[in-house]
Fold:
Amino acid sequence: MPGAEGLKRSLFRSLDFIFILRPTVVVGMWVFFFAGAALAVRASGGSLPLLASSRGLLLGFGAMTAALGGGCLLNQISDVETDRVNEKLFFLPRGLISMRAAWVELAVVWVLAAALAAPLSPAFRVVLAASLFLNVTYSAPPVRAKSSCPWDMVWNGLGFGLVSAVAGWASVAPLSPAIIPLGLTYTLAVAGVTASTTVLDVEGDRAEGLKTTAAVLGASGASALTLVLVGAAGIMGAVLRDPLGFFGPVLALPLLVRAHVTRDRTHRIAANQVMVAAFAVVASIRAPYLLLLLAFVYFGSRAYYRARFGLSYPGAGTP
Structure:
């Protein structure tokens, strides 16, 4: 039926504009955002787990989600040729979404982020500005941190770990220095995973002349650095008595060690995904509804990527 086929194409096109924002990447920020919010509630004498969402928490969550979604989109706009070589992130390389439409969507989501942050505290708006700065300078010249070791790790670590946790705290309470050492613990863990992800793209990155962590250190060197950074995060988590900072790295380390030893691509993908999943599960103890959000993204992404590209993602496939 032509009508049914046309409806299917329209549905896919609408979903393309959602999934180009990389919700499976954005969930990593959600984990540390809610962790920061829970830490603020605990520090102020409130009860945990977080079972209700305040207006500030919802607005902050929406603003940070839009900011990072736009950052993921800018990354794809900047790296369309590299993604074509690596056969990943198909939206722009395959022309599913035009470059012009991508730029328009980027403007829309970042304006939305600013609008959602407007009613919140000045401190939160400063944190959001820091997030936007990291997102722009990560992908766009002249800084383009993602193409230079060690800044690819530093920018990702700060953006997902420290800034996200601080944003979560600032959305529900005045900022406190107590969030800094915890945020830096998360920064180490995310930096380690970033080093691990560069191993997967090393050939395409070198072909494009990018000096990412794996391109500079080699796949084995980047893999070893991953173990050091993630292990250090686990130690800091233990010292700070922070379950998220401790159990997230500890649960992922065995798979990261396996990937380092076998040098198998599927083992590397699984290790990276388990790292995110481990943090998510531990964070959900303090913010149970995070599990519902993560489940929605996981199963929605599985259905979408299977129907659209024939991939099992998140899973063994690479988007």
Remarks:
- Residues 11-47+54-306 form one domain.
